[in-house]
Design goal:
about 90 residues; mainly alpha; 2 strands
């Protein structure tokens, strides 16, 4: 992977995390969490596409299509897990 492809991937994945945060809302910690989840999903998706030789919407050496899909899966799962209610203290 070239440096420009890495920078482009980092920009896209950060943008996905920020857009998701603006849609779902939250505080600064959730913004950081969304960006980290987006980065993880994006690069795992890219590596998966690289290993399986999938070329859905690739830009040079960057497998943008699969990386985007996996990034949004990570963001949705992270959002879903953050909805789990906390057990009130003092009960049980």
């Amino acid at each position: 992977m070239t440096l420009p492809a890495f920078v482009l991937g980092a920009l896209f994945s950060t943008l996905y995390g920020v857009i998701f945060h603006f849609i779902k809302g939250g505080n600064f910690l959730k913004l950081v969490l969304n960006i980290i989840l987006s980065w993880l999903g994006f690069w795992i998706g890219h590596i998966l596409a690289e290993q399986l030789d999938w070329t859905f919407f690739s830009i040079g050496p960057l497998h943008l299509g699969i990386a985007t899909i996996v990034s949004f899966i990570f963001l949705l799962v992270g959002y879903w897990l953050s909805l789990i209610p906390k057990k009130p203290e003092g009960i049980g």
